[in-house]
Amino acid sequence: MLKLYQFIRFVSVRSMFSSIKPAWCSKLPRPQYSLLDRVTIPSQQWFQVYRIHPNIFAIYEPYHWEETISYLVIGSKYSLLIDTGMGIGNIQQVIQSLIPSITSLKVINTHTHHDHIGDNWRFSGKLLGVHSDFTEHNAQGTIEEAQNELKPGMIWEKYLPKDFNPKNYRIHPFQITNYVKEDDRIDLGQGQELQVISTPGHSPDSISLLNEKQRVLFAGDVFYQGPILLYRPETNLQDYLISLEKLAKISTKFDLILPGHNIPNVESKLIIKAAKAMQEILNGKLIPKKTDDGKYDEYSFGEFSFVIDQSFLL
């Protein structure tokens, strides 16, 4: 009887989601992924893994509307996981399929918004992070922000992990072991270094990571193709502009931007376009359109747009 009750309860919980393919999934698969080598990870369907370089993997969550992307960089001495995703699927299991042992793994967040820290708790003792009040607050975990990601139409239920129970979904607390700051180098061995670049604005603790040897920039949510969301209370548009301009000035050092959402192969020249676009917005030279829900202003620039709380511009 208990097993029957548990089964009925599980079916009831799963019925929170529609089995119908959400409208936003109509754009999937994004055509840019056809240019990448997909890596098959057995016994899971939530993540898709793509090889960017022989030692760099994009770990993509296409079946949630956020389309969050985390990255694994494999070095001769250490491997580095950049962000841990939504926490809906178990990213640790994916990592264990890609590297022989996680004992030499380090983990760092590009920032601590909940969609990038979902599995931080699985990597106790391995976490690097920024020392800020915002980071410390988010490290306490959250139920509310996690549950907000489960609203109708946000998930394609067909691909949810079989053991996922939405009623238990939360961002677990975690603890940062070592702190990083501007210009620190994360040495993965044999000249494989990632330079920490402070890029606040989207969030107070946002960083980017420059791998100059392989000419890639891990940008988190500082820049990606698609609507860039700049309406949370912690957003600072002046800081954001400074960060875009900082990255634009060093854009000759990288060919690809590997961002935190949508697609993992963005041309570096777009960061220059983004910096100029944000400057024009802050100078009041552009007229936006309202988002479909009427809450925010959206400034569109082809490959990307900025979705902004109008009060930030007053």
From TrEMBL:
Domain spans labelled Metallo-beta-lactamase: 67-261
SUPFAM superfamilies for this protein: Metallo-hydrolase/oxidoreductase
Pfam family, one: Lactamase_B
Range of residues in the leader sequence: none
SMART domains reported for this sequence: Lactamase_B (SM00849)
Protein name as catalogued: Metallo-beta-lactamase domain-containing protein
Organism: Rotaria sordida
